[in-house]
Structure formats: structure tokens, C-alpha cells
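[User] Could I get a sequence and C-alpha cells?

[Assistant]
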Amino acid sequence: MSAAGITVAIMAGGKSSRMGTDKSFVPLLGKPLIEHVMERVYRLGEETILITNKPGDYAHLGLPMFGDIYPDRGPLGGFHTALSHARFPHVLVVACDMPWLNRPLLEYMISLRETADIVVPQWDKYPEPLHAVYGRACLEPIEENLRAGLLKLTAFFGKVRVHFLDRPTIARFDPAGRSFANLNTPEELAQAGEGM
């Protein structure tokens, strides 16, 4: 599959308050979560960037790193930073704590990038904005919401064209919806290790 025109942005800006330590570096099967994510997205795009406000912690990964242009605005600020710094017109955004990303599903989402400004899965009731493809047209509405203090991740969706992937479509690639599982607590981490 062609990776032309794609930037992959890994979001590593969360506070990890429920885990008690930086989730990116919590080991799962002997390897930090973020390294599982990096393996899953390897060469999916023409570049892979890391969105973090702690560049010193991540320097060993060898990725270009960018801190939030609008600090303390949560993941929406991270989206804005990724779209602002991406060298390519479409950005695949993934979270650093999703170790079971499904590569065929991600490739399918990327293949739909010209159909809308956002390609986003909706597995249960809500969309999965930290597992989606965003086009440049999202940058302005995201910035408007940041300036207005509207930080809900999906609040700008009404201002752009959105292609929602429904559950049956997702299930063709990922029948259990495991792609969207993230690990927030030590208990979830322990269960994940047992279930691998």
C-alpha cells in the first residue's frame, strides 16, 4: 500500500494519572507500550512524528518530536500540533497506549483519506478520535475550538466532512475491536499481559 502523503503522529502527551507512571514506557511483554505502537505503524506513512511535551524522555526513540503549540489543551492541542508540523496533507493519529493497533484496518482507513476530512472508526457508541486520519482542512476548525476553549475531541467534527467506519466494516479487520483498547491502570496492564 502506498504511504504517499501520510504522516503518522503518535500522541504521547497524556498525564497517565491512573497508571501512576508514564504509560508510554510501561512494559507489556517486556517492551514499552510505545514501542508496540511504533512497530504497528512502521512505514505506514512517509514520516512518523511524536507529539510530546517531554522530548528528553523520548529522545532515544529517534523520532521527530513536537511540543504543543497550545499548552495544556489536552489531546485536541496535540491534534493541532500534529497537523501544524506534519509534512504531508493527511495525518494518521494514534495514541501511545494502544498496543493492539490493527495494521490492515489502519491501511484501509488510509486508503479512504480522500473521501473526507476525517476517517474515524465508531466501534461502540462513540467515535475513536485517537485512532483516525485527519486532513489539513481540520486545522482551522481545531484552532477555532482551542481559542474558544472547546476541548472535546469531536466538537469540531460538525465543521468538516467525516467518514465514520461502522462496526461491521471494522469487524472485517478486527472482529473483537481490540484496536481501540488502551491501557490506563496497572490492573488493565496485568490483564492485558495475561491475555496476550
The first strand starts at residue 6 and ends at 11. The beta strands are 6-11, 27-28, 31-32, 47-51, 65-66, 90-95, 118-121, 131-135, 162-165. The domain at 6-195 is CATH 3.90.550.10 (Spore Coat Polysaccharide Biosynthesis Protein SpsA; Chain A). Residues 9 and 79 are 9 Å apart (CA to CA).
